[in-house]
Amino acid sequence: MRVAVIMVPLTSFCVVNVAVVQYAARLELGLGLGIAKTLPLVLLIVFGIPAIDGSLLLPRRCRTRRASEPPRSCLLLYVYAGFENTAAAAGEFKNPQRDVPFALLTVIGAVTLLYTLIQLVTLGTLPDLATRAAGAPLADAALVVLGASAVC
Fold first, then answer.
1. Which residues of the chain fall below pLDDT 70?
2. Which of 39, 47, 45 is nearest to 146 (CA)?
3. 133 φ, ψ to 5°?
4. Which of 40, 110, 122, 124 could form a disulfide bond with 141, CB atoms 3.0-4.6 angstroms apart?
5. Cα–Cα distance between 20 and 143 in angstroms, integer?
């Protein structure tokens, strides 16, 4: 009875784990979730760059940070967190000494370029962005750039 009590849950967890991992791998490869998540941002950039008002990009006086707000560097840390997981699969690479640094630099470069362009479009299309307390600036920028029919 003791063996059954241990083996039944362990076996069922193992079966669920294998099934979910295989399903998740197929889902990622088949549907391209990474592309599905990035495509709206790329569309915002592509259609937003021509809509940028250059005068909105000029430096202005900013409000000071309240004591209750986290420093902006914490937000940057959150944005770039996760790229270091690229090295986790190094054991499966053919040449990890070459591939891991290349993958890390490529990911950091791509994320930096994407975020810089998103920031440029958002700052250049929303005139009151600096005075907003909170909200959804990407959705607001998409509303300005693409119109109400494109924003869900």
1. 22, 24-33, 60-84, 86, 130-134, 150-152
2. 47
3. -80, -45
4. 122
5. 37
CA 95 vs. chain centroid, Å, equals 27
Domain boundaries, the chain: 1-31, 34-56+68-152
Report field, pTM of the whole predicted structure over 0.85: no
DSSP string, the chain: -HHHHHHHHHHHHHHHHHHHHHHHHHHHHHH-HHHHHHHHHHHHHHHHGGG--GGGGS--PPPPPPTTSPPHHHHHHHHHTTGGGGGGGGGGSSSHHHHHHHHHHHHHHHHHHHHHHHHHHHHHH-TTGGG--SS-HHHHHHHHHH-TTT--
Six-digit token string for 83:
């790229």
- Residue tagged 């991992």 (tokens): 21
What's the pLDDT tens digit per position in 108-129? 888 889 989 998 998 898 887 7
With vertex at residue 143, the alpha carbon angle to CA 139 and CA 148, rounded to the nearest 5 degrees, is 120
